[in-house]
Amino acid sequence: MKKTTYKSIFATTFIAALAAVGTMTMPAAAINTKAASAGTKVIHELPDCDHEYEGKLFEEVYDHIEDKFEDSFAKADVGVPVAIVVDVDQSNPDDIVIKGDFELYNFNQKGDTLECASFGSFPGAIHLEKEKDGDYEVTKMELVEDGSEFNSSAKKIFGDKYDAFMKVQSDDKTRDSYRDQILANYVEENGLSIKKVKDYGQDAVTLPQENIEEFSSIVNGK
Fold first, then answer.
1. Would you state the pLDDT for residue 51?
2. Residue 7: inside a domain, yes or no?
3. In this structure, is residue 172 part of a structural domain?
4. How does DSSP classify residue 112?
5. pLDDT of residue 108
6. Confidence (pTM)
7. How many H helices and E strands in the chain?
8. Which of 38, 141, 188, 203 has the highest count of CB atoms within 10 angstroms of its CB?
9. Which domain holds residue 59?
């Protein structure tokens, strides 16, 4: 198979950015969390954010992110995995490699708002194999190391995509906008009455319009 080239998350539109889905690896010690106030109360048990419309490959990636890291956080109403993809290599179906920054956000619902209770960033590379039935299975995850080993381990994992990865790391505004689009699609897909998202210490912001059809078309190469 040919190597699939995906545009960066920093393309001019988020629709184009969706084509940049990837894999990563990172140690549990490198978890960075933004905790909500101690008084935040879990109000609802929301539907899982399953990303089914993104296809089997990325559904497996998101499931792996949530399964691997959810126990590192206090229980919330819903966990929302996000993949900020830098590169996807599908040239070998036995070792598909997705490189990027993999994140897990945990939200509690308060009225029409999702309030972020905690957040973890896990940059690296996720390796998958395609099975005979067309499904995918994660075989391993390489994680960028924390502290003084961050740059050297990131260069080892990302190779010639290191600069693109560092650009992703430094653009919080774009990352938040990408996450909010995923939240808008999640709300639409599940028929929820949620209209806003609020990060700790910040004002709530209105979610964008859903774009499930466009998101799905780009991620699945249609």
1. 74
2. no
3. yes
4. T
5. 96
6. 0.78
7. 6, 6
8. 141
9. 14-36+54-219
